[in-house]
Amino acid sequence: MILRFFAPMRPRLAAAAILGALAYITGIGLIAVSGWLISRASQMPPVLTLSVAIVLVRAFGVGRAVFRYCERLVSHDAVLRSLVELRVRLYQSLVEMPVWQVLRMRRAEMLTALVRDVDDVQYLPLRALVPAVGSSIAAVACIVVEFSVDVSAGLWVAAGWLIAATTLPWLAWGTSRRVAESTAADASEMAAVCMDLIEGSADIAALGLSGRAMAQASYVDARMTDTATRFASRTAAVNGLLMLVQGLMVVGAAWSAVRAISFGNVDPVMLATVVFIPLAMTEVLAAYSAAALTAAAAQPSVQRLARVLAGGELATAEVGVDARAVERIEVAAGARIGVAGPSGSGKSTILAVLAGLLPQPGDGAGSSEISPLGLPGSRGRLVTALAEQEPQVFATSIAENLQLAKPVDAAPLTDVQMWQALSAVGLDDWVRGLPAGLDSMVGIGGAKLSGGQKQRLSLARMFIADPDVWLLDEPTVHLDHQTAVKVLDSVRAATQMRTLVVAAHDSRDLALCDHVIRVDAVERAERA
After folding, report:
1. 278 and 383 assigned to the same domain
2. Has this prediction a pTM greater than 0.85?
């Protein structure tokens, strides 16, 4: 599934492989022709007999750099173009998932998939596919040259190439696959630990748990170091075997050439060429084991991305829904429903299910349309929107937090529209009193705002979004009486032609509703 994103770039990748093969061939040709030139020059022939070899040495020297540069240019261009499509499709897959399914994913796992995994996948064509194909072309060319000079030497080179291209990559894959999986798991855990340390630094310091938190990070870091050491040792072992194979190739080719020269079957001048060709094939032979190691290291990333692209989940946190809290709730278009009950009775859970943030009870499947209510949405507007008790406020300006609520295909909000939304929730005077006004920063998680200000900022976004279904969770719990009355009057006016569901303890919030559903300790839901 992952490699199909590189399919449209196959012509470019094929061109890159050919350019890579030419880079290998010119590099090996430079060494081989230089050996012949030195051997022939030692016989002091007429200079003109050496002119072709001299030109070839210069051409190979320049050509190697040119072909390698072109191969890098073409291959990276093809891969980066493909990664654009991969990243877009990855985000589309997350958007198409039910919201509750996305929310279940561990944030560190999602961050790893969106950033590190995509980066790891790019190495498959760059460090595995293109080098392996280019090396094969170059190796065949070298074997043909060796056979043309001496059959026995060609057999030695061919045998060494087969071992380097089959046995050693198999060993590299087998010994490194499990280590690569451990590396990926440790990296994901380290990302989770770092996120916990950063986001919970204040709580950790307040509770005096800094030492324990750092000890956990150090433990994961030590495990990552140990895993990296094991991976490096396996890589070194494979490279050692590769050097042994290449050494046997050189010795075998030299022995065969000397034997052929003694029988008068090979020109002595060709001895250096026969020996230098396998000696210069280091880069060619190493490409196969490197490709196997790259594939082994990228396998966890490929598997993780494939799950996301197929609509599956990464590592998840448990999310439960008590079906008894919501199974009997029916909401008609245009209804104004209140949900009342003691703390812990499931009011917020009901709103989360209606908003699609938790799976619907029964079959455990959610709806990416966020439509358990079965209400169609107007074009360009949200079908359903939820204002929570603890809303998400982003670490940017007040204006940018409001801009997030505008319809996707709408023009950016004007200052007039933003001031109207803030006025509806009673925040306009406070924002006008800030030095930067709408451009004032709210801090990480809204740290510069009080609970009531964050809640009203969330409600202001509701006024901007103007959804078909308004879901409000304790909309005035953090507000004083005067401000609460103003906000509720604004909500009442804005939802005259909308569907409204309010979960609250306060009777003044429930006064917005025509009907009230009372939920008692998540034991039953009954119409009142």
Report:
1. no
2. no
